[in-house]
Design goal:
Blueprint: E1 22-26, H1 31-40, E2 46-51, H2 57-68, E3 72-75, E4 81-85, E5 96-97, H3 102-115, E6 119-122, H4 133-141, E7 146-150, E8 158-164, E9 175-177, H5 183-195, E10 199-203, H6 211-218, E11 223-226, E12 229-233, E13 245-248, H7 253-265, E14 270-277, H8 284-291, E15 296-304, E16 307-315, E17 329-331, H9 343-349, E18 355-359, H10 372-383, E19 388-390, E20 393-398, H11 417-430, H12 451-458
Parallel strand pairs: 1-14, 2-13, 5-6, 9-10, 17-18
Antiparallel strand pairs: 2-4, 3-4, 6-8, 7-8, 10-12, 11-12, 14-16, 15-16, 18-20, 19-20
Helix pairs in contact: 1-2, 3-5, 4-5, 7-9, 7-11, 9-11
The structure holds shikimate-3-phosphate.
Shikimate-3-phosphate (S3P) is lined by residues 32, 103, 182-184, 187, 208-209, 340-341, 364.
C-alpha cells in the first residue's frame, strides 16, 4: 500500500528556527476593565479621566454607546479620555451597536434596564447569534421590560437585537443562582440590581471574574461579597461626583497571554510585560504554563480600579529547548472561568508540550465569538496540528517535535479574534518562514489591534 504524504510533508526536513522574543513592554489596557471603566461613567454625573483605555474594536463600541447616551467624550491621546457625564442621561436616537462585544451588550442590557433608558442593542453577525436568554431571564425576573428575538435556526434560543422598553415601575431585587459561571451574566444582574428596589443577591457555584464587584467597591457603591454570594443594595440615584474621578485601566492579561505563549514556544525568549492586571480570576493560564514547565514570574507593583497590577515575565535561557515543555494537564469545570478566553492559546502551546492536555467542562467555548472548539479543530487540522474535540472541551496529544505545514487554503477563523491571534502564535513559533493566510486578519483588532507589529518588534534580531 502506498501512503501519500500530507500536503507539504515532503518539504519538511527540520524544525525551523524562530527568532526569540526579547523586550519589555506594556500590553494594551484590559478589555473587560475597559468596558467597565466606560460604564462606570454612567453611574454618577461629573467629570472623569480614563487612562490606558484599550482602543480595540470591542471597547470602542462601548465608548460609542456612551456618546449616544449623552456623555461628552474627548480624546486626550490614543488611550486617554476626558468624559463628562450629565445629570440627565439621554435616550439614544439610534440602536446602540455593540458590534462583536458580548460584554458591551450584556452589561449594558442590565445597566440600561436599571437606569430605565429605553434602547435597542444590536451587534454584528457573531454577537447576533449568541445566547441572550442568560441575561433576559434574570432581568425579566427583576421586572425589566426587555425582549429579544428567536434565533433563526434554534427556536429555543433568544438573541439580539435586544429591546429595552420604558419601565412603568422600578425593578425589584432578586436572589439568583447563576446557571453557568459567567461574569457577563453576574455583572448584568449587579448593574440592574444597583438601581432596583431592595437587595439583589447573586450566588456563583463556580467563581467567574470579579471585576464588577471590585470596581463597585472601589467606587464606594453598596456591594458586599461573602464566599460565593454577592449582594448589592439597590436604590442608587446617581449622586453627583464630589471631585473629578480618574480611572486607569491595567494591561490586559489575555493579550499578555498571546505574547507569552509565543515566548513559551520559542527558546531564548526574554520578555517582561509591565502593568498587567493580576486578578487571579484571569490568570488560570499562568498556572497551566507553569505546570508545563514555563517559568512565568509575577511581580505586583500597584493597584487600580480595585485590582492588583504588576509584571509578568519569562526568561527562557538560550540552552532551553521546547523539549522542556512537558506535563499532563487536565482541566475541569471549576478551572475553566479563570482561563476561558485563553483556551485557544493553550491549545496552541499544548501542541508542543510532551503530554496530554485534557479540557472538560468548557461547553461555554461553543458560545463565544465563534464555536471555538469547532474552529480550533479545523484550524489545527489545516496545519498538521493535533486536537480531538469533545462536546465540552478537547484533548491534545502534544509533541515537542511536531512539524506543522502551511495550509493549502486560508485558515477559517470564524472572524474570531482569539482564533486568529492563536494561529498567528503557532505560525510564528512553528513555521516562521511561511506566512499562513487567515480568512480574516482584521478581527484581531477586536482585542489586540497591533499584535502583528508588536510581535515583529519583539523578534527584531
Ligand atoms: C467577560 C466575561 C467572560 C469572557 C469575556 C469577557 C467580561 O464571558 O469570556 O471575554 O468582561 O465579563 P462570560 O462571562 O460570558 O463567560
Amino acid at each position: 500500500m502506498v501512503i501519500s504524504p500530507l500536503p507539504h510533508e515532503q518539504d519538511l526536513v527540520a524544525l525551523p528556527n524562530p527568532q526569540p522574543l526579547k523586550g519589555t513592554l506594556s500590553v494594551p489596557g484590559d478589555k473587560s476593565l475597559g468596558h467597565r471603566a466606560w460604564m462606570a461613567t454612567l453611574l454618577r454625573p461629573g467629570t472623569y479621566t480614563l487612562y490606558n483605555v484599550p482602543n480595540n474594536a470591542d471597547v470602542t463600541a462601548t465608548r460609542e454607546c456612551m456618546t449616544a447616551l449623552g456623555l461628552d467624550v474627548t480624546p486626550v491621546n490614543e488611550t486617554d479620555w476626558q468624559v463628562t457625564s450629565p445629570t440627565a442621561l439621554g435616550t439614544p436616537a439610534h440602536p446602540l451597536d455593540c458590534k462583536n462585544a458580548g460584554t458591551a451588550m450584556r452589561l449594558l442590557a442590565g445597566l440600561l434596564s436599571g437606569l430605565n433608558i429605553p434602547a435597542t442593542l444590536v451587534g454584528d453577525v457573531s454577537l447576533s447569534s449568541r445566547p441572550m436568554d442568560r441575561i433576559l431571564t434574570p432581568l425579566q425576573r427583576m421586572g425589566a421590560n426587555i425582549t429579544g428575538q428567536a434565533h433563526p435556526s434554534k427556536p429555543n434560543v433568544t438573541v439580539a437585537p435586544l429591546q429595552i422598553h420604558p419601565q412603568i415601575a422600578p425593578l425589584t431585587g432578586i436572589s439568583y443562582t447563576l446557571p453557568m459561571p459567567s461574569a457577563q451574566v453576574k455583572s448584568a444582574i449587579l448593574m440592574a440590581g444597583l438601581f432596583a428596589q431592595g437587595t439583589t443577591t447573586v450566588m456563583e457555584p463556580i467563581p467567574s471574574r470579579d471585576h464588577t464587584e471590585r470596581l463597585f467597591q472601589s467606587l464606594g457603591l453598596p456591594l458586599t461579597t461573602e464566599g460565593s454570594t454577592i449582594t448589592v443594595q439597590g436604590g442608587w440615584q446617581r449622586p453627583a461626583l464630589e471631585a473629578p474621578l480618574a480611572l486607569t485601566v491595567p494591561g490586559d492579561p489575555s493579550s499578555a497571554a498571546f505574547i507569552l505563549g509565543a515566548a513559551a514556544l520559542i527558546p531564548g525568549s526574554i520578555i517582561t510585560l509591565e502593568n498587567v492586571l493580576l486578578n487571579p480570576t484571569r490568570l488560570g493560564w499562568v498556572k497551566v504554563f507553569r505546570q508545563w514547565g514555563v517559568p512565568i514570574k509575577i511581580q505586583e507593583t500597584g493597584t487600580s480600579m480595585g485590582e492588583t497590577l504588576g509584571s509578568l515575565s519569562l526568561s527562557w535561557d538560550k540552552e532551553s529547548s521546547t523539549d522542556r515543555l512537558k506535563g499532563d494537564v487536565t482541566l475541569t469545570d471549576s478551572d475553566i472561568p479563570a482561563l476561558i478566553d485563553e483556551l485557544p492559546l493553550l491549545a496552541i502551546v499544548a501542541q508542543r508540550v510532551q503530554g496530554t492536555f485534557t479540557v472538560g467542562g468548557a461547553e461555554e467555548l461553543r458560545h463565544k465569538e465563534s464555536d471555538r472548539i469547532a474552529l480550533l479543530q479545523s484550524a489545527l487540522r489545516a496545519v498538521g496540528g493535533n486536537m480531538t474535540p469533545l462536546a465540552d472541551g478537547f484533548i491534545i496529544e502534544g509533541d515537542p517535535q511536531r512539524m506543522f505545514f502551511a495550509p493549502t487554503a486560508a485558515i477559517s477563523t470564524g472572524h474570531d479574534h482569539r482564533i486568529a491571534l492563536s494561529m498567528r502564535v503557532l505560525n510564528t513559533a512553528a513555521d516562521p518562514n511561511i506566512y499562513w493566510p487567515l480568512d480574516n486578519t482584521e478581527c484581531m483588532a477586536v482585542s489586540f489591534p497591533k499584535f502583528d507589529t508588536v510581535l515583529a518588534q519583539l523578534q527584531q534580531p
